[in-house]
Amino acid sequence: MIKVSVVGAKGRMGSHVVDAVNGAQDMELALTLDAGDDLHAITPENTDVVVEFTVPSVTLDNVLTLIGQGVDVVVGTTGWTEDRLEQVRQALAAAPRADQAVFIAPNFAISAVLADYFAKLAAPYFESAEVVELHHPNKVDAPSGTAIHTAQGIAAARQAAGLAPVPDNTETDGGSRGQVVDGIHVHAVRLRGLNAHEEVLMGNAGEQLTIRADSFDRISFMPGVLLAVRKLAEGSHAGLTVGLDRFLDL
Fold first, then answer.
1. Could you say which of 3.40.50.360, 1.10.490.10, 3.40.50.720, 3.30.360.10 is the CATH number of the domain covering 110-216?
2. 156 annotated binding-site participant
3. pLDDT number for residue 79
4. Residue among 3, 16, 120, 135 flagged as catalytic
5. Beta carbons within 10 angstroms of residue 179's beta carbon
6. 3 is catalytic
7. Is 139 a catalytic residue?
8. pLDDT at 124 (0 to 100)
9. Which residues bind NAD(+) (predicted)?
10. Is residue 213 part of an annotated ligand binding site?
Protein backbone atom coordinates (compact mmCIF):
# COMPACT_ATOMS: atom_id res chain seq x y z
CA MET A 1 0.00 0.00 0.00
CA ILE A 2 1.19 3.49 -0.88
CA LYS A 3 0.87 5.79 2.13
CA VAL A 4 -0.37 9.18 0.90
CA SER A 5 -0.63 12.42 2.84
CA VAL A 6 -2.58 15.39 1.47
CA VAL A 7 -1.63 19.04 2.06
CA GLY A 8 -4.53 21.38 1.36
CA ALA A 9 -6.94 18.58 2.24
CA LYS A 10 -9.88 20.88 2.96
CA GLY A 11 -9.62 22.79 -0.32
CA ARG A 12 -11.66 22.28 -3.46
CA MET A 13 -9.05 20.04 -5.07
CA GLY A 14 -7.60 18.59 -1.87
CA SER A 15 -10.94 17.20 -0.75
CA HIS A 16 -11.28 15.36 -4.06
CA VAL A 17 -7.76 13.97 -3.64
CA VAL A 18 -8.69 12.63 -0.19
CA ASP A 19 -11.72 10.87 -1.67
CA ALA A 20 -9.67 9.48 -4.57
CA VAL A 21 -6.96 8.11 -2.28
CA ASN A 22 -9.58 6.53 -0.04
CA GLY A 23 -11.11 4.90 -3.10
CA ALA A 24 -7.83 3.54 -4.50
CA GLN A 25 -7.18 -0.10 -3.68
CA ASP A 26 -3.39 0.32 -3.66
CA MET A 27 -3.29 3.42 -1.41
CA GLU A 28 -4.05 4.39 2.15
CA LEU A 29 -4.58 7.89 3.51
CA ALA A 30 -1.88 8.84 6.00
CA LEU A 31 -2.25 12.48 7.11
CA THR A 32 -4.51 15.33 5.98
CA LEU A 33 -3.14 18.82 6.60
CA ASP A 34 -4.40 22.28 5.80
CA ALA A 35 -3.51 25.91 6.44
CA GLY A 36 -1.86 26.36 9.82
CA ASP A 37 -0.92 22.70 10.25
CA ASP A 38 2.73 21.73 10.81
CA LEU A 39 4.20 20.02 7.74
CA HIS A 40 6.92 18.53 9.93
CA ALA A 41 4.33 15.98 11.03
CA ILE A 42 4.87 14.33 7.63
CA THR A 43 7.85 11.97 7.69
CA PRO A 44 9.13 9.01 5.63
CA GLU A 45 7.89 6.76 8.45
CA ASN A 46 4.23 7.71 7.93
CA THR A 47 4.19 8.88 4.29
CA ASP A 48 5.45 7.61 0.94
CA VAL A 49 4.08 10.40 -1.25
CA VAL A 50 2.56 13.79 -0.40
CA VAL A 51 -0.01 15.43 -2.66
CA GLU A 52 0.17 19.23 -2.37
CA PHE A 53 -2.84 21.25 -3.56
CA THR A 54 -2.78 24.69 -1.93
CA VAL A 55 -2.28 28.18 -3.42
CA PRO A 56 0.63 29.72 -5.37
CA SER A 57 1.66 32.00 -2.50
CA VAL A 58 2.60 29.11 -0.20
CA THR A 59 3.28 26.14 -2.46
CA LEU A 60 7.02 26.77 -2.91
CA ASP A 61 7.65 26.96 0.84
CA ASN A 62 5.53 23.84 1.33
CA VAL A 63 7.46 21.86 -1.27
CA LEU A 64 10.85 22.96 0.08
CA THR A 65 9.78 21.95 3.60
CA LEU A 66 8.54 18.55 2.41
CA ILE A 67 11.78 17.94 0.52
CA GLY A 68 13.60 18.63 3.76
CA GLN A 69 11.37 16.07 5.45
CA GLY A 70 12.61 13.41 3.04
CA VAL A 71 9.31 12.61 1.29
CA ASP A 72 8.30 12.58 -2.38
CA VAL A 73 5.82 15.24 -3.48
CA VAL A 74 3.14 15.47 -6.17
CA VAL A 75 2.24 19.13 -6.70
CA GLY A 76 -0.99 20.31 -8.32
CA THR A 77 -0.75 23.96 -7.32
CA THR A 78 -0.01 26.26 -10.27
CA GLY A 79 1.96 29.51 -10.50
CA TRP A 80 5.40 27.96 -11.03
CA THR A 81 8.12 30.01 -12.73
CA GLU A 82 11.55 28.85 -13.88
CA ASP A 83 13.12 30.57 -10.87
CA ARG A 84 10.83 28.68 -8.48
CA LEU A 85 11.49 25.40 -10.27
CA GLU A 86 15.23 25.99 -9.94
CA GLN A 87 14.84 26.41 -6.18
CA VAL A 88 13.16 22.99 -6.11
CA ARG A 89 16.01 21.46 -8.13
CA GLN A 90 18.57 22.91 -5.74
CA ALA A 91 16.66 21.62 -2.73
CA LEU A 92 16.47 18.15 -4.27
CA ALA A 93 20.23 18.21 -4.88
CA ALA A 94 20.67 18.56 -1.11
CA ALA A 95 17.75 16.32 -0.16
CA PRO A 96 17.99 13.67 2.59
CA ARG A 97 17.48 10.91 -0.01
CA ALA A 98 19.42 10.63 -3.27
CA ASP A 99 16.34 9.22 -5.05
CA GLN A 100 13.92 11.84 -3.75
CA ALA A 101 11.36 13.08 -6.26
CA VAL A 102 9.04 16.04 -6.88
CA PHE A 103 6.44 16.02 -9.63
CA ILE A 104 4.70 19.23 -10.72
CA ALA A 105 1.77 19.15 -13.12
CA PRO A 106 0.43 22.26 -14.85
CA ASN A 107 -2.70 20.15 -15.32
CA PHE A 108 -3.80 16.66 -14.23
CA ALA A 109 -6.67 16.29 -16.70
CA ILE A 110 -5.78 13.74 -19.40
CA SER A 111 -7.69 15.78 -22.00
CA ALA A 112 -5.68 18.91 -21.20
CA VAL A 113 -2.37 17.04 -21.28
CA LEU A 114 -3.22 15.57 -24.68
CA ALA A 115 -4.34 18.98 -26.00
CA ASP A 116 -0.99 20.40 -24.90
CA TYR A 117 0.82 17.54 -26.65
CA PHE A 118 -1.20 17.91 -29.87
CA ALA A 119 -0.53 21.66 -29.86
CA LYS A 120 3.22 21.05 -29.86
CA LEU A 121 2.86 18.63 -32.78
CA ALA A 122 0.81 21.11 -34.79
CA ALA A 123 2.77 24.26 -33.97
CA PRO A 124 5.45 23.99 -36.71
CA TYR A 125 2.76 23.91 -39.43
CA PHE A 126 0.93 27.15 -38.68
CA GLU A 127 1.88 30.80 -39.09
CA SER A 128 -0.25 32.01 -36.17
CA ALA A 129 -1.01 30.59 -32.74
CA GLU A 130 -2.81 31.89 -29.66
CA VAL A 131 -4.06 30.32 -26.42
CA VAL A 132 -7.31 31.08 -24.59
CA GLU A 133 -7.95 29.65 -21.14
CA LEU A 134 -11.30 29.86 -19.38
CA HIS A 135 -11.84 29.20 -15.67
CA HIS A 136 -14.19 29.85 -12.76
CA PRO A 137 -13.78 33.25 -11.04
CA ASN A 138 -12.36 31.71 -7.84
CA LYS A 139 -9.10 30.80 -9.55
CA VAL A 140 -6.35 32.96 -8.07
CA ASP A 141 -3.79 33.01 -10.90
CA ALA A 142 -4.10 34.22 -14.49
CA PRO A 143 -3.16 33.06 -16.99
CA SER A 144 -3.33 29.49 -15.79
CA GLY A 145 -0.22 27.36 -15.40
CA THR A 146 -1.60 25.04 -18.06
CA ALA A 147 -1.93 27.86 -20.60
CA ILE A 148 1.56 29.13 -19.87
CA HIS A 149 2.94 25.60 -20.28
CA THR A 150 1.05 25.18 -23.55
CA ALA A 151 2.34 28.50 -24.90
CA GLN A 152 5.90 27.63 -23.94
CA GLY A 153 5.61 24.29 -25.75
CA ILE A 154 4.18 25.93 -28.87
CA ALA A 155 6.95 28.54 -28.85
CA ALA A 156 9.67 25.91 -28.47
CA ALA A 157 8.25 23.85 -31.33
CA ARG A 158 8.04 26.93 -33.57
CA GLN A 159 11.60 27.92 -32.74
CA ALA A 160 12.89 24.42 -33.47
CA ALA A 161 11.13 24.56 -36.85
CA GLY A 162 12.69 27.93 -37.65
CA LEU A 163 9.39 29.80 -37.89
CA ALA A 164 9.22 33.58 -37.86
CA PRO A 165 7.45 35.35 -34.98
CA VAL A 166 3.67 35.19 -34.96
CA PRO A 167 2.41 38.06 -37.17
CA ASP A 168 0.73 40.90 -35.27
CA ASN A 169 0.59 44.51 -36.43
CA THR A 170 -1.22 45.77 -33.32
CA GLU A 171 0.29 49.07 -32.18
CA THR A 172 -1.78 49.86 -29.06
CA ASP A 173 -4.06 47.25 -27.54
CA GLY A 174 -5.00 48.58 -24.09
CA GLY A 175 -4.12 45.19 -22.66
CA SER A 176 -6.60 43.32 -24.84
CA ARG A 177 -3.94 41.15 -26.52
CA GLY A 178 -3.32 39.18 -23.32
CA GLN A 179 -0.05 38.14 -21.76
CA VAL A 180 2.78 37.28 -24.14
CA VAL A 181 4.52 34.02 -23.23
CA ASP A 182 7.63 33.39 -25.33
CA GLY A 183 6.00 35.25 -28.21
CA ILE A 184 2.61 33.52 -27.90
CA HIS A 185 -0.40 35.57 -26.77
CA VAL A 186 -2.36 33.97 -23.90
CA HIS A 187 -5.82 35.19 -22.92
CA ALA A 188 -7.60 34.46 -19.62
CA VAL A 189 -11.38 34.40 -19.11
CA ARG A 190 -12.95 34.22 -15.63
CA LEU A 191 -16.63 33.41 -15.73
CA ARG A 192 -19.14 31.97 -13.28
CA GLY A 193 -20.29 28.53 -14.42
CA LEU A 194 -16.98 27.50 -15.93
CA ASN A 195 -14.57 24.98 -14.45
CA ALA A 196 -11.34 24.53 -16.46
CA HIS A 197 -11.12 24.94 -20.22
CA GLU A 198 -8.40 25.66 -22.77
CA GLU A 199 -8.52 26.47 -26.45
CA VAL A 200 -5.51 26.58 -28.75
CA LEU A 201 -6.08 28.49 -31.99
CA MET A 202 -3.72 28.05 -34.95
CA GLY A 203 -4.07 29.63 -38.37
CA ASN A 204 -2.68 29.81 -41.86
CA ALA A 205 -4.04 31.71 -44.84
CA GLY A 206 -7.43 30.17 -45.50
CA GLU A 207 -7.45 27.60 -42.68
CA GLN A 208 -7.66 27.25 -38.91
CA LEU A 209 -7.06 24.46 -36.41
CA THR A 210 -8.75 24.55 -33.00
CA ILE A 211 -7.67 22.23 -30.18
CA ARG A 212 -9.94 22.42 -27.14
CA ALA A 213 -10.01 20.59 -23.82
CA ASP A 214 -12.90 20.93 -21.37
CA SER A 215 -12.91 19.75 -17.77
CA PHE A 216 -16.43 20.04 -16.37
CA ASP A 217 -15.73 18.65 -12.90
CA ARG A 218 -12.68 18.48 -10.65
CA ILE A 219 -13.06 14.72 -10.48
CA SER A 220 -11.54 14.67 -13.98
CA PHE A 221 -8.14 15.49 -12.43
CA MET A 222 -8.09 12.49 -10.09
CA PRO A 223 -6.88 9.75 -12.50
CA GLY A 224 -3.88 11.94 -13.30
CA VAL A 225 -3.16 12.61 -9.63
CA LEU A 226 -3.26 8.90 -8.76
CA LEU A 227 -1.07 8.08 -11.77
CA ALA A 228 1.55 10.57 -10.56
CA VAL A 229 1.45 9.16 -7.02
CA ARG A 230 2.00 5.63 -8.35
CA LYS A 231 4.86 6.72 -10.60
CA LEU A 232 6.69 8.45 -7.73
CA ALA A 233 6.08 5.49 -5.45
CA GLU A 234 7.93 3.29 -7.93
CA GLY A 235 11.12 5.12 -6.98
CA SER A 236 12.37 5.48 -10.56
CA HIS A 237 11.72 9.19 -11.09
CA ALA A 238 14.30 10.92 -8.90
CA GLY A 239 14.64 14.68 -9.17
CA LEU A 240 12.13 17.15 -10.58
CA THR A 241 9.61 16.09 -13.23
CA VAL A 242 7.22 18.62 -14.79
CA GLY A 243 4.19 17.63 -16.84
CA LEU A 244 1.93 14.58 -16.78
CA ASP A 245 2.89 13.84 -20.39
CA ARG A 246 6.14 12.43 -18.98
CA PHE A 247 4.10 9.57 -17.49
CA LEU A 248 1.80 8.89 -20.47
CA ASP A 249 4.30 7.31 -22.90
CA LEU A 250 3.44 9.87 -25.58
1. 3.30.360.10
2. no
3. 81
4. 135
5. 16
6. no
7. yes
8. 98
9. 8-13, 37, 76-78, 105-108
10. no
